[in-house]
Design goal:
dihydroorotase activity; single chain; zinc; Dihydroorotase; zinc ion binding; alpha/beta
């Protein structure tokens, strides 16, 4: 199945020298390793355009290599790494260091560099130097860019030099002190909440800038019905806006927080059932272009206290299965539509050579069983952290093999 060509057929796939050499029909090649995949789906390696690798500086949570091992186990072959590292990815030296070390990792690593130094919204970074070092996108993710002038300048110059702004939309004054969605559950628990308006105000600002200056912007981790509605309306007006949501936002709700378990705390937070259904509808009608995990690892010790734990959950190993379970099996999306939002759509938004099985493309392939059921066991995951909101859940869809650049980087232990 190749969404880049709407290709859905039974046949062989030949990989040679890190490239896709032939697609379809019966193929024979001397001295090739033959993988018998009857009943399985071969698709382009997934593209996750929102990942926190925590490297440099926070490698007790994750590092480039452990994060890419987790990616491989989830069928993800390309990741966009966010800049809230220590030090922040705000200069050419840090960008170059990450890219140099990532060459040996089990996925292709792309860099979203910081818009402001230290993500503090006090001084802009040198965007041309960041681009020269190899960054492909810009964000202060983990925080919004508080200084609107800096954000506008980044959107304008970024469009000129090939850096896509991927925006964390949040009003920090509205969100301050909140631990979860502001609503029925937060009131029941007596916990300060984060209102949907915090995200919505940020989304409105970013859309306004894109429309006023005629430049593109990508909205990260959409979680509210109102934000989805604003993006939908903006697209109808021709605004150059794209958007992503995460598997947890179309699968789970704020009701999970009744457990007082910090693994269900992330930012933006899990919202209401109305918001969850709005994410599904926005995926169905094309308002939301891509599915990305916002993979945010934290150690078990950091996540042990519900009130003081940092926000974030992991998702690289569960994203495909969550999509099949919550979107394909109930009939909201076809499998082809799901794969499109996890392969060619994010690749096109970022302008990277990924998300396709076309001849001569990189040999990035995921092989999966769309009907295999499995229970998410955090102890069996491949990254350093265990803070998955899907723990204990029965999901459908299991990755059997992942090939990145022609190299087999993951095989399901049951089949190895």
């Amino acid at each position: 199945m190749d969404p880049s060509r709407n290709l859905d057929e039974t046949g062989d796939l030949l990989l040679r020298d890190g490239k896709i050499a032939a697609v379809g029909g019966e193929i024979s090649a001397e001295d090739a390793r033959v993988v018998h995949a009857d009943g399985l789906i071969a698709a382009p390696g997934l593209v996750d355009m929102h990942v926190h690798l925590r490297d440099p500086g926070q490698t007790h949570k994750e590092d480039i290599f452990s994060g890419c091992r987790a990616a491989a186990a989830g069928g993800v072959t390309s990741v966009l790494a966010m800049p809230n590292t220590t030090p922040a990815t705000d200069c050419a030296e840090v960008v170059s260091d990450i890219l140099r070390r990532a060459r040996e990792a089990d996925a292709h690593v792309y860099i979203a560099a910081a818009i402001t130094k230290g993500l503090k919204s006090e001084e802009p970074t040198d965007l041309r130097a960041l681009r020269g070092a190899g960054a492909i996108a810009l964000s202060d993710d983990g925080r919004p860019v508080e200084n609107t002038r800096f954000l506008a300048d980044a959107m304008i110059l970024g469009d000129e030099i090939g850096l896509k702004v991927v925006a964390h939309c949040e009003d920090l004054f509205l969100a301050k002190g909140g631990l979860m969605n502001e609503g029925v559950v937060s009131h029941k628990l007596g916990i300060q909440g984060i209102p949907a308006a915090a995200e919505d105000c940020g989304t409105a600002r970013e859309i306004a800038l894109a429309e006023a200056y005629g430049v593109p912007v990508h909205i990260c981790h959409v979680s509210t019905a109102t934000s989805a509605g604003m993006i939908r309306d903006a697209k109808k007006r021709g605004v150059r806006v794209t958007a992503e949501t995460g598997p947890h936002y179309f699968s789970l709700t704020e009701a999970q927080l009744l457990r007082r378990d910090a693994d269900y705390r992330m930012n933006p937070p899990l919202r209401t059932e109305k918001d969850r259904l709005a994410m599904i509808e926005a995926l169905r009608d094309g308002t939301i272009d891509a599915i990305a995990t916002d993979h945010a690892p934290h150690s078990p010790e950091e996540k042990s206290n519900f009130h003081t734990a940092p926000n974030g959950s992991i998702g690289l190993e569960t994203s495909l299965a969550a999509g099949i379970t919550a979107l394909v099996k109930p009939g909201y999306l076809t499998l082809m539509e799901l794969l499109s939002k996890m392969t060619i759509a994010p690749a096109q938004i970022l302008g990277i050579p990924a998300g396709t099985l076309k001849t001569d493309a990189a040999a990035d392939v995921v092989l999966f069983d769309e009907n295999a059921e499995w229970t998410v066991d955090p102890a069996k995951l491949h990254g350093k952290s265990r803070n998955t909101p899907f723990k204990g859940m029965r999901l459908t869809g299991r990755v059997k093999m992942t090939v990145c650049g022609g190299r087999i980087v993951y095989e399901d232990a049951e089949n190895a």
